[in-house]
Amino acid sequence: MDASHPSSSYIPRGRVLEITTATNCIIRCAYCPQQKFAERQRTVSDAGDLGLEEFKQCLSRVPKDVDIHFSGYSEPWLNRDCTEMVEHAYTRGHGIRIYTTLIGMDEHELRRLQALRFRAFMVHVFDSGQYMNSRLVTKPYLNLMRQLINADIPSIRFLVLGDIHPDLAPIIPAEALVRSRSLISRAGSVDPKIAKPRPPIRGPLACTEKREYRNVLLPNGDVTLCCMDFERRHVLGNLLRDEYEDLFEGPSFRQVVDRMNGASGSLLCRICERATPKLQGHGS
After folding, report:
1. Pairwise CA distance, residues 263 & 260, whole Å
2. Does residue 217 contact residue 17 with C-beta atoms inside 8 Å?
3. Which site among 15, 48, 60, 120 is 20 to 30 Å from 203 CA-CA?
4. Residue 262 contacts by C-beta under 8 Å, 6 or more apart in sequence?
């Protein structure tokens, strides 16, 4: 095989498959281009949610050393089967990562999650209403947040962009709260009034986080390049029919690698905030 095109033997450790369990997200974060994803996804599939059996079928093709990250392009727990999906992936031996606002989760599901161990458990905390729908912060939601904080999950962290919702401020421990005021354009997909895209990188480039191996499973089985690809610009394959290793040996991934190495053609990474120019002769 051409050394410029990585085969499965070249796939590095630390791989992640993010799971998009649902198409329509009600959180409506202003800095998330989720609506663009939903509109684009509807043009190729009627599958609004990822079915449990379809998830199991896709996961059966994924090596166990690939972490499964319940995040993707929408709130994972808007799918009623999300907790069972987490349990299934955990039972199969995958490392589990969670990124959630908790919307859609209930206290029973949280108790089930408490029985598991996670590589990461990040809660996206509601802000004061500048970017997120603060009306979703109800009394049951606050009670669920209190239960989560008392659940003694070692890896748990809380992330807020902007000012924290006033009803959540006294609940979340300050030492567990990560504050971020920097917004990114998600490779040019966010409204430029909220986050301006970066100037495009010319020539060879690299992803600072190796996100070409942190791919995203969609409800119809398609797999996109990474968490920035809300508009399905680089679809690597479909895990309902393709083996996991085939995603990195097919024409779409080969094209991405060629363009990252300097070949001409459209490439999402050129305006992605996680990309950096790569000097000629310093790796492939």
Report:
1. 7
2. yes
3. 15
4. 203, 204, 280
For residue range 144-184, list pLDDT tens digits in order.
999 999 998 988 999 999 899 999 999 999 889 999 878 89
Give tens-digit pLDDT for 107-118. Answer: 999 999 999 999
| pTM to 2 decimal places | 0.92
Q: What are phi and psi of 81, to 5 degrees?
A: -95, 10
DSSP E strand boundaries for the chain: 16-19, 67-70, 96-100, 120-124, 156-161, 177-180, 205-207, 214-217, 222-224, 235-238, 275-277
Residue pair 34/232 in contact (Cβ under 8 Å)? The answer is no
Phi-psi region of 152 (alpha: psi -120 to 50; beta: other; left: phi over 0): left
Spatial contact of 186 and 270, defined as CB atoms under 8 Å apart: no
The DSSP element (H or E) to which 256 belongs, if any, is helix 251-260
